[in-house]
Specification:
With about 260 residues, this protein is mainly beta. The chain has one helix and 21 strands. The strands form six sheets. Strands 4, 14, 16, 17 and 20 form a five-stranded antiparallel beta sheet that branches. Strands 7-13-12-9-10 form a five-stranded mixed beta sheet, with no helix packed on it. Strands 6-5-8-11 form a four-stranded mixed beta sheet, with no helix packed on it. It comes from Blastopirellula sediminis.
Length: about 260
């Protein structure tokens, strides 16, 4: 290769690298609500299996008094084979944290949890009966923690990213269920009981995020900033501006998408 061609190629590489590199950090926030009428999921009757409760709440679809929608997740998505952007230094402090999923009242808390591949998940049982869980992962090895009554626990690190949340079931109490998001990148949020979420210190630029909910999986259709979006597999581009808050406002999800 001639020297001039080599220099030109190097300059082009550096130029595109500069565009890819984040210049500053911003925040994404918003609030999920249901658009339309829908009844929350009915309580699940508990017939036997040694549980001293008659019914447990169905957490798959929880709706607030004004349509607030918890348990909507969004995470940064990059094309297969691409590297994630380097996270903000503030995320280093939680890189090795322990994330707890607790059996309490014969329900798993929280119903939707998030762990990074660098973190450890602690499965804990506070119920007066033993519990055996099955974590249904695609890329990570099968894992079935057996938890003794009144405080049994077991730790597990999920080292491989999962494309969709893992379903967690009980092999003893069939109504027990929850979901675990396993991602390499820390740029993940789960809406709270008010439907609100926030992701801080996102690299400036335009990024693709994937929307997902426990009742419908990928959120393909939603109303954002007054416009209905119909996105394949819940993928949506969000522009992040350095030193600013990108407020997506109230994001409306049609009730028909949640009525399973």
């Amino acid at each position: 290769m001639k020297l001039g061609t080599l220099v030109l190629a190097l300059l082009v590489t550096l130029q595109f690298g500069a565009f890819a590199q984040a210049d500053g950090w911003g925040t994404i926030k918003g609030k999920f609500v249901v658009d339309g009428k829908i009844a929350p999921a009915k309580a699940i009757p508990v017939p036997i299996f040694g549980a001293p409760v008659g019914a447990v709440p169905n957490q798959k679809l929880v709706i607030g008094p004004n349509g607030e929608l918890p348990n909507v997740a969004l995470w940064l998505a990059v094309p297969k084979g691409d590297a994630y952007p380097e996270p903000h230094p503030s995320y280093a402090a939680s890189a090795n944290d322990v994330v707890e999923l607790t059996c309490r009242g014969f329900i798993l808390h929280p119903y939707l949890a998030f762990t990074r591949t660098s973190q450890t998940v602690r499965f804990k049982n506070l119920d007066p009966a033993a519990e055996e869980l099955a974590i249904n992962a695609f890329f990570n090895p099968a894992f079935r923690p057996q938890l003794a009554a009144n405080g049994g626990q077991e730790d597990k690190r999920f080292e491989l990213e999962e494309r969709t949340p893992c379903v967690i079931n009980s092999r003893i109490h069939p109504w027990v269920e929850s979901y675990l998001i396993v991602r390499e990148s820390p740029y993940v949020a789960i809406s709270n009981e008010k439907g609100e979420f926030e992701i801080a210190n996102v690299p400036a630029g335009t990024w693709t995020f994937q929307f997902w909910h426990t009742a419908c999986g990928y959120v393909n259709e939603f109303k954002l900033l007054g416009q209905y979006q119909n996105e394949r597999k819940g993928l949506h581009q969000i522009e992040v501006v350095a030193d600013q808050v990108t407020d997506l406002g109230v994001i409306q999800i049609p009730s028909r998408r949640l009525d399973n």
